[in-house]
Each structure stands twice: as C-alpha cells, then as structure tokens.
Amino acid sequence: MNNPLLEKFNTPYSTTPFSKIKEEHYLPALEEAITTGKNQIDEIVNNLEEPTFENTIEAMQYAGELVDRTATIFFNLNSAETNDEIQKIAQSFSPLITEYSNDIRLNPELFKRINSVWENKESFNLDAVQLRLLEKSYKSFSRNGAKLNDEDKDSLREIDTKLSTLSLSFGENILAETNSYELLISDKSDLSGLPQSAKDAAKLLAKSKNKDGWLVSLDFPSYVPFMKYADNRELRKELAEAFGSRAFKGNDHDNQEIVIEIVRLRQKRAELLGYKTHSEFVLEERMAETPENVEGFLIDLLTKAKPAAIEQFNELSEFTKSLGGPANLEAWDSAYYTEKLKENKFSFNSEELKPYFQLENVIDGVFTIAGKLYDIKFEEINNIDKYHKDVKTFKVTDNDDKLVAIFYADFFPREGKRGGAWMTSFKDQRIVDSENERPHVSIVCNFTKPTETEPSLLTFQEVTTLFHEFGHALHGMLSQVKYESLSGTSVYWDFVELPSQVFENWCFEKEALDLFAKHYKTGEVIPEELIQKIKDTSNFMEGLQTLRQLNFGFLDMAWHNNKDTDIITSVGDFEYEATKNTSLYPRNDKTCSSTAFSHIFQGGYSSGYYSYKWAEVLDADAFEFFKEKGIFSKEVANLFKDNILSKGGSEHPSELYRKFRGKDASVDALLKRAGLVG
To answer: Hey, what CATH class is 4-147 in?
Structure first.
C-alpha cells in the first residue's frame, strides 16, 4: 500500500501530512524504515576504508532518518491525540524501536569503527562541534552496552524491551484513571465559592457529556479552580483523593507493581553497565555529574527553605482557625485557605487577573516579546495539516522574511490527550549540504477552555505555563547547529529548563505585561496596582512551594539512587519515608504521587527532577543580567540567543552559560528572588 510515512512530504514547508496518515500506516512504515535503517548501518560497517569522522560518525547522523520521523510522529500523537487503536499499536511499536536502537548500539563492528575514530581523534583536525558529536556518539555506545559480552548484551536487550512497554502502560493507566473520574454536582449549593467562570466551565463540561448539572474532572483547568475556591470541604476532599489516588487503587489501571518493576529494572540495567545506581548512570551526563552533588544541592535548598515553609504553614494554620476552619490542615485545604490568606493579606483574588489574560492576547504577547528580543515574526497559517481542529499553526520568520520555524500550538484538554504541558517537535533543525533545514516545533497544553459566555481566560499560572513552554519552543526554533542530534533542546536535562524558566520572568514585568494584558471586554491595559499585586504575591508561600518541588526531587532520587530495590514492597510506604522531611501535611494512605509521577516513570526525568530547581538558579542569575541592562536589551538578548538558544548541545552547557553571562551562575539570585534571603 502507499504509505505517506515513507514518502517524501510534498506539503508546504515539508510539514507532516496528518490527514493522510491512518493508524494502519504506522507499523508497516516502522518495519520498512527499520529495514532501511539497518541497511544504512551495514553500509557504514562494511565500508572498506579506514574509519573517519565523515564515513562513520557523520554518516550515522543520516542513517535511520525514516525511523526517527515515523517514531516522532507516532509518539507525539500518542501523547496529544491518542485512541484505543493507537495505544494498542504502541504495545508493538515501542519494543520494535527499542530493539532497533539496541541492534545499532550493541553492534560490535560498528562500535569498533566508532572507537577507532575516538582513539584517533587528534589526527582528524575536528572542530569543536565535530568533537562534541564524536564524544556524544562514543559515550552513547560505551555507556549503553557496546563493551558488554554477548550474554550481558542479551540481558540488556531484555531489560530495555520490558522498560519500554512498562513506561507505555504507566502512561496509559494514568490517562484511563483521569478520564474515568467525574464529579457530577446536581445541587447548586455545592458550587458555593466557585467563580462564575468555573461554574460555566463545569456546566459546559456536563453538557458535552449529555449530563444535567455541573461536572468537575481531574483535568487541571477543572480540578484547580475547584480545589482553590469550592467551600464544600467534603467535595474538595473527594476530588483531592481522586486526583492523588490515580493508578493507586489496586484496580486494572494500578501502577504500583509497574513502579517497582521499573525501578528494579533500571537498577539492574545500571549494575549491568558497571554503575552503582541508575542515578549514577544518568548523572554522569548531566551538569550535576553525581548523585552526591544532587543530594547536596537538594539538602542545601531544603535547609534554606524549610524554616520559611514551617513559618508559612503555621501562619496558614492560624489563619484557617481564625476563619472557623479545621484545627488541623489537610492537603485538600491547602489551595483553598492559601487563596483566602492571599486575599486577606493583599486584598487580591487571583480571579481578578483572568479578564486581562484572554488566550489570544497572551499568544500575541508571547509573540511580541519574542519578536522584540530575538527579531522574529509570527503569522498564523492554515495551509498545513493539523492533527486536531483545535491546533493553531504559525509560520515563524526573521526580519528578512526567511523561514525560522513552523510552530504548532495545542491548548485545550480532551480525552485523547495526556495531562500537563510540554514542548516537542515534529522535525528538528539541521544543516545538510549547506541547506539549513528549519524545525517544526509544537507546544501542547491543557488550558481553560472557552465557555458559552466567555473566551478562554487564563489563570496567571496558565500564563506562566504558556511562557514556559514557549521558552522551550524558542530553544527549538532558533537552533543553528549542523547536526540534528545536537540541535535545539538536545542538551543536558538540567540545562534544558533554562530557556523555558527564564522566559517566565517577563510575565512579572510591567513593560512586558503592558504589551498584551488587556481586559477582554474593555481593552483596558492591566492596571498598575494589579501588576504590583502580581509582584507582591510572586513570593507568596514560596517556602512551601520550594518544599513541594524538593519533595518531588527527593522522591525521584530515592527511587533511583537506591541499590536495594529488591526489598521495596510498598510504593506508598517507600514514598512516605523518602519524603517525610519535606511534607508538612498529614499522610493520607489513599493517595500516592509515585503512581502518577509521569516525569520520572514515563518521561525522561528519572534522576532529573532536581533539574527544575537547578535551572532556577541559572534562570534567576540570567534574568538578573536582563534586568541590569533592561528586559528588552538587545545586547543581552543577542548574547542569550547566540550562546544559549542557537547552540543546542554543540558545547558543554557550563561553557555556553559562561559565554552568555561572563561567569558561572550564583544561587544567591534565586534565593533573593524567592525571598528566602534578605
């Protein structure tokens, strides 16, 4: 059959022809692409010439392109627009990818050629980027089994195949649990406290499911407002326990055994490769370098943040009691009474901001700010395929009207889409035969949908999320690297969050907010007093927020820097022991973070969740530089673009940061911004 995945994309900008790709195309395309990819590797292996950078390392960059393209499209849609058929295909698709990758990485003749180039690198007169690619290629093979004997290679293959299918099942279980829960409210009094926008959204959701009343789901735009504003404590408890117990109920979608099996297999894999723990294996290729450095970093932040967190928790407890609330705070009280305390201290309700953050205006603001900083323009286009009607598509150009990127934006929750927000790409930037092939970048979010009476009005947290993901997108769009495996966001995981987190800072600046924060009815620019309240409340409960992030960081390291995985029998008990020093609320035996901790069990953040705080140090230090020179300083923006955004992983991140900033980052900027030091 004609398979669009295997053909040249004769589409505008060579974009993905989503409308032509059917479920039945994926597996046949992958199988044929794998055959082609293996033949390309055989050509490299059987080359009779002496191994060189060009005929081995560079040649490998262009082998398996069809595999990469097919896998990228499939896995992106499995996250953003999945269905039962795609999930079924994934159970065969993922092991095939793993087997193919291992066939290459465990090929002794191929590694012999790579090793020869590595050992003779001084004789090839390589530039810095070529040396970086050679080092990455060599380490990719040597760290992942190339030096093992045949028996151990077989064991590694078995482990990797199991891990690939377990990770898929983990994600599918969370999606199923999220989609299966509904809180249907028929008594209007149970909506007490909710803003009208949340009531309208709940009414619309019920209507979409052909139900009477108001429906609350576990999707963030539905879940968060209810937890923050609903007066009915019992319903908040029910919702919080439903959210916190996803894949932790002992039912068909339970992830407890999957979690234990994943950590055991990761530990077994690490030991097979000569490492003490999975964390040691992972962190060898991170800025942090070792588990000890990560633990030290987390403990240092905990020491500084916990006194403030305890003080804030006690303040919240006393305030709650003063309102006649419970004597002992539970997790489902946190958002509700925190919002009340914020209103009391700052005469400020977060809902006051939403009219100024209509989604379309925020998108325009993001584009305007990016344009002022990096000289790029955005034009919405409708001549390319979309994988869902809600997706918006844009052409990104520079001041000379040259193509910079194609940008996809997917904003609203739906059943076939996993929760959260992320950036990805359908095509990465690279330079082939002097042609600079531009990237196709996508951000996927789950924002507040329009109702029958209002457009999509974002919470301020959703605004910062959009800026965050767009910061990642800029990293992909502005890449100027020769080799695809070094371009865009192909950097160390504890560096990848710098472009995203630094871009969030513009959300707090009047000069930036004046560009887009306009009342959706009147067009009035956001008042200065509201901007001041955004600033005043930016550090509100920062000690508790930091403690929450550290909780996840310590939990991640507990699972993965652990030689004794065989003795773990209870996911809940293990989690409690790992996080009790960062938890101020009472333990609830019905809930568990680990079984829905997608970042570390489905995404790529195992032993890397600390990266968010690590990158905060970098972003606070970086934005301090912008503030010194002006937040739209072309001098600083050019330094950031030329040394961070355009360079991908072509140099070590520490070197790139020093070239941008002129020095290493200091933790002082973060502590000062967070209000944790004077």
So the answer is: mainly alpha
Q: Are 376 and 477 in contact (CB under 8 A)?
A: yes
* CATH 3.90.550.10 assigned to 355-523: no
The structure tokens 């974002």 sit at 458
75: confidence class by pLDDT, cuts 50, 70, 90: very high
Question: Which residue spans of the chain are classified as CATH 1.10.1370.40?
Answer: 355-523
- Whole-number Å distance between alpha carbons of 644 and 499: 8
pLDDT(1) > 80:
no
3-state SS of 471-508 is HHHHHHHCCCCCCHHHCCCCCCCCCCHHHHHHHHHHHH
Q: How far is CA 424 from CA 409, 427, 428, in A?
A: 10, 9, 10
Pick the catalytic residue from 454, 469, 509, 616: 469
Enter the tokens of residue 358: 């209509």
pLDDT, average across residues 565-580? 96
Domain with CATH 1.10.1370.10 in the chain: 254-345+539-678
Given phi > 0 = left and psi -120 to 50 = alpha, else beta, which region is 673?
A: alpha
Average pLDDT, the chain: 96
Q: Where in the chain is the domain with CATH 1.20.1050.40?
A: 4-147
What kind of fold does domain 254-345+539-678 have according to CATH?
Neurolysin; domain 3 (1.10.1370)
The answer to whether the beta carbons of residues 631 and 506 sit under 8 Å apart is yes
DSSP element (H, E) containing 380? strand 376-380
Over residues 451-495, the pLDDT tens digits come to 889 999 999 999 999 999 999 999 999 999 999 999 999 999 999
Catalytic site includes residue 469: yes
The single-letter DSSP state of residue 457 is B
Q: How far apart (Å, rounded) are the C-alpha atoms in residues 295 and 64?
A: 38
